[in-house]
Model the fold of this input.
Amino acid sequence: MTACLEPLRTDGGTLTETPLFFQRDDVRLFCMLHAPEDAQPRNAFVLSHPFAEEKLWSHRVFVSLARALAQRGHVVLRFDYTGAGDSAGSTAEASMETYLADLSAALRVLAEKHPSVQSVGLIGLRLGATVCALFAERAAVNGEHAFLRGAPLILWEPVIDGEAYFQEILRSNLSTQLAVYGKVVENREKLQEKIRAGGVVNVDGYEVGRPLFESVAVPTLLPLSRKAHDGPALVVQVAPTAQTKERSDLQELARSYPAGSFARAVEQPFWREIKPFYGRAEDLQQVTLNWLEQRDVQR
Amino acid sequence: MSSVEAVSFTNPAGLRLFGTLHQPAEPDASLPAVVLLSPGVKMRVGPGRLYVPLTDMLIELGYTVLRFDFFGLGDSEGELEERQLVDVYNHIEVGRYVGDTLAALDFLRTRGHRRFIVGGLCGGAITALLAAERDSSIEALLSLGMTVTLASNAATPAKYLSARELESAKRHYLRKIANPRAWRSFLTFKSNYGVIWRVIKRELFERKQPLPEPKPPDASAPPEQRGNANPLFPKAFFTFLERGGRALLLFSEKDRLHGEYQEKFALPYAERLKAHMTQIHQHIVANANHVLSLHEWQREMVEVGKRWLLSLYPVAAR
Done:
C-alpha cells in the first residue's frame, strides 16, 4: 500500500516522503522513502535502526539524517525490522537471519521504486550497524546486490561483541525486576536458561527468544578479520566528550575494510533515555555528511 | 481481513503529520473511531510497541484506529526547539498537541467518522483530555497512566513526592540501612538528600500533626505555592464529565501517577467527583511499571480496555 503525498518543501529544496508497506515473505514491513523531487538520483541510502527501544529513542535522529541526505539529492529508505515500529511480527521470532532478509527486501523495494539508483550505501546504528556490516560482507563474498559494490558503508557504534551486547540487553530486564519487585527474581543465568529452553525474556516491552539469542549472543558477531566489501567504510565511535578514549576495537574494525576510516562524534548515547532531547545528532550527522562529501558521493 | 494504510494530514500550522490507519475486516459503523496518541517523545507505536496489542484488540471489536506522530516527533514534519526532555514533556502537559489531535479528528471526518474515543499513555492521555475539553465529539477517554502534574517541577522532585512515594522511599532506605555501599553513597554526597530529608521530616513531624482536609489548590496562589498539580486538568476533566463523557483510567501499581491522581485530584475534588463516579472506570495493573513493559501487564490492559468498551458499546459484542 502506498500513500500519495504532497512534496515536503524545505530550505534545502523540495523533497517527497512516501510511507509504504512491503512484504518480506509473509511479514508486512513498513518503510518511509525520502527522495528529492524531479530528479533521477544515482545514489541512495538505506538506514538500519537499532534494536528494541533504542529504535524509538533514536528515531528522530534517523529522520533528520534521512532529510539531510535527501536535501543533498539522495534517495533514502528508512524501514522497520520485523517486530519493530509499524512492521508486523514480533522480536521473539526475529533473528540475525530475519534481519538480513528484511534488509534485502528493503533494497528490493528501493530498486523497484527508484530504478535510476545505481549505488546504495548502508547506514546503521548499534545492532542495526552490525546487520549492515554483515549484509555488505555477505553480498561482497557471494557477489550479490551489485549496487552495494563500491558503495559507502557507515557504521555508527556497531556491536562487535554480541555476547557482551546480549548481557547489556539482559541488564535492562534485571533493572525492571529491581524496580518492580525490589529484587532480582530471575538472575542472568536463569534468564539465559529460559531462552535456551525456548522461552522468551522481556526487554523493555520486547520479547527476546532463542533465534535472536543464538544468532546474536556470540563474541565474534562482527569479526575484525579482513573484509571483502570494497566500498568506502566509516566506523564512528559515539563518545560523550572529546576527551573520551578512542575504542581500539572500532579502530581495528575500520582497518579491516580495504577503504575503511575511523571517526569520533561527540554525542550523548541518544539511543537510551537521557535528559537531553535528541531531535538530531548534530556532530554525528556532520561527521557522516562531511565524510561522504570528501568521497564525492554525489547524486 | 483487517487492513492498514499509511496516511498523512496537516495540522493547524500546515505541518504534515504521518500515521497509520487500521481498519477492521468488518467495520462497525455504529462505533466511534479510536485515535491513539503518542506518549512523550516516542513515535506512534508507543513504548515497547504498547499500542500494537491495543490496536489489535480494537480492530477485533470492529473499531477503526488511527495512530499518528505529533509534529516534531516520529516521522512527522516540524522541529522541536527544546533541548531537554523535561521541557518537551511540560509543553505536552499544557496542551501543545491538542491542535494536532483535533486535526486527526478532522482527517477521520473526511473518512466518514463523526464520533471518537481518544486515548494514550501519559502525555497521550492528558492530550486526549485537553482535546476532549474542546471537542464534544470525543465521547470517551481510553487513558493509560493519566498524568495530573507538570513535569517542569521535576527539577525539585523531592518537593512534590506523594505520600505513597514517601512511604515507598522509606521502605527503600530502610532496606538499605545496613548496606555499606549505601552508606558510602550517603557519605560521598551521592544520595538524594532531598528525598531522605522529606522521609525523615514526615516520620518525625508531619505524622504527629492531624492531616489537613484535602482541598483544591488555590488557583490565585503564586505558582510556587500551588504545588506541581497541572492547573488545566480539573477544569478539563469536569467539563468532559459534565457533558457525559466516559473515561477509563488505567494506572500501573509501581508508577507514581496513580498516587498523584489520588492525592492531587481525586481527594481534593472528591465532593465534586461523586456525581460522576459511574462515568469513570478505574483499574490498577498490579506490579506494573509506567510503560506496562511486561506482556502479562499489556494483556491485562488490553482485557480491561476490551471489557470497558463492551460495557459502553455493547453492540461490539456481536
